[in-house]
């Protein structure tokens, strides 16, 4: 199975922000949307970075409350790993585990097409395992 399958179910909506927004503004955005990360883009929607809850915590731990008034560009992760919709679920899970991150932008022909989270992947895998389990029960019951 591929990332495309997850995007078909969850949709292609991506929450983005600009690099000049303050850490406070983006923290409120994360809270309002109930999400764990936001993609930082420029005016042409080119990915500049990603800001996660973990980045917010680190910023406040390092700079104190003053960090909340600074631009997210100072605290975002600038080197953003990405994936494609053709990537396998297993491969993406391995990529996230190795990189120790929980959100992965999905790119298609150089454009941001979606974001998958570790929660999305786990939810999909659980549904897949339950489906396989049910199929096995049916097979055994009717054999």
Main features:
143 residues; alpha/beta; CBS-domain; three-stranded mixed sheet; 5 helices; 45% helix; elongated
Proportion of residues in helical segments: 40-55%
Number of discrete helical segments: 5
Spatial strand arrangement across the major sheet: 1-2-3
CATH fold category name: CBS-domain
What is the terminal separation in angstroms? Answer: 28 Å
The count of domains is 1
Low-confidence stretches: none
Estimate the strand proportion. Answer: 15-25%
SSE run: HEHEEHEHEEH
Number of strands: 6
- Helix and strand composition category: alpha/beta
- Overall 3D shape: elongated
How confident is the prediction overall: mean pLDDT?
A: 93
CATH class: Alpha Beta
Largest sheet: 3 strands, mixed
- Output the radius of gyration: 18 Å
Q: Which homologous superfamily in CATH is the superfamily?
A: CBS-domain
Q: Please give the CATH architecture.
A: Roll
Describe this structure in words.
This protein is α/β, with parallel strands linked by helices. The chain has a single domain, classed as Roll (CBS-domain). 45% of the residues lie in helices and 20% in strands. The protein is built from 5 helices and 6 strands; from the N terminus they run αβαββαβαββα. The strands form 2 sheets. It has a 3-stranded mixed sheet with strand order 1-2-3.
Q: Secondary structure elements and their pairing?
A:
Elements: H1 3-10, E1 16-17, H2 23-33, E2 37-41, E3 47-52, H3 53-63, E4 83-84, H4 89-99, E5 103-108, E6 111-117, H5 118-141
Parallel strand pairs: 1-2, 4-5
Antiparallel strand pairs: 2-3, 5-6
